[in-house]
Design a protein that fits this description.
- Helix 1 packs across helix 2 (about 55-70) and helix 4 (about 100-115) crosses helix 5 (about 155-170).
- The protein folds into 2 domains: about 5-95, 2-Layer Sandwich (Zincin-like); about 100-215, Zincin-like.
- The chain is about 45% helix and about 15% strand.
- The strands form 3 sheets. Strands 1-3-2 form a 3-stranded mixed beta sheet, covered by helices on one side.
- It has helices at about 5-15, 55-70, 80-95, 100-115, 155-170, 185-190, 200-215; strands at about 20-25, 35-40, 40-50, 125, 135-140, 145, 175, 180.
- Strand 2 (about 35-40) and strand 3 form a beta hairpin.
- The chain is elongated and about 65 Å long.
- It is α/β, with parallel strands linked by helices.
- The protein binds zinc ion (ZN).
- Zinc ion (ZN) binds near residues 163 and 182.
Length: about 220
């Protein structure tokens, strides 16, 4: 029995549940969708992956509204109120961010050069002057973040952009249960980048910039 479902049920019906239940997070759902499937003995709650980050209080409200449907009741709790307030805020929560035009150019260049323009534009934002994390792709909010350090060099920016776009391409690639972020196939694609010296240029650039960052 999943503790969140147990808590939700007891608060709703003032008794221990007489069934088993589990919660699974699924990337197949968009936004904050969720559903429940059940047999006499087991309830399977499936929540979109975005729910993972949300607090238990709000999740309990969601589970209770699903339990109400299953048991055809319309009991109201504080948690359900929280859940309803949360849902009203969702449109602002998941809205597209402004994309930076410099990054947009870089994205379009890489999209045309390597992907026949198939990718829809994600959110594109500059991060801080980070030397260690040059770029990230977050598939929960579909955002590529590029370190501001790379503003000075278009070639290197394109290379990191290309790398993050490969994460978009390979995001569902799984080997057994482990998600392989930089699979052999990923590395093979990465090596197609037109500037074959880009890795050494990147190292050199970072060494110089780090030095400037410390001393000036
Ligand atoms: Zn990576």
């Amino acid at each position: 029995m999943h503790h969140i479902v147990q808590k939700a049920y007891i608060e709703l019906f003032q008794k221990e549940p007489d069934f088993d239940a589990n919660i699974k997070y699924s990337r197949a759902f968009k936004g904050f969708n969720a559903n429940v499937r059940y047999t006499r003995e087991v309830m399977h709650f499936r929540l979109s992956y975005q729910w993972k980050e949300i607090s238990d209080d709000i999740k309990i409200g969601l589970i209770q509204s699903l339990l109400n449907k299953v048991f055809r009741s319309d009991k109201k709790t504080m948690n359900q109120e929280l859940y309803e307030i949360f849902l009203k805020k969702v449109p602002t929560f998941s809205k597209k961010l402004e994309s930076d035009p410099i990054l947009e150019d870089s994205f379009n260049r890489m999209n045309e050069l390597y992907f026949q323009g198939i990718f829809l534009k994600p959110n594109l934002v500059f991060g801080g002057n980070n030397f260690r994390t040059l770029g990230t792709y977050n598939y929960n909010d579909d955002t590529i973040m590029i370190s501001s350090v790379l503003r000075k060099d278009q070639n290197l920016m394109d290379y990191v952009m290309y790398h993050e776009m490969l994460h978009m391409k390979f995001r569902y690639k799984k080997t057994g249960k482990r998600v392989v972020h930089h699979s052999k196939e990923f590395r093979e694609w990465e090596s197609r980048y037109h500037d074959k010296d880009v890795e050494s240029k990147l190292k050199q650039f970072l060494r110089k910039e780090r030095f400037l960052d410390i001393w000036f």
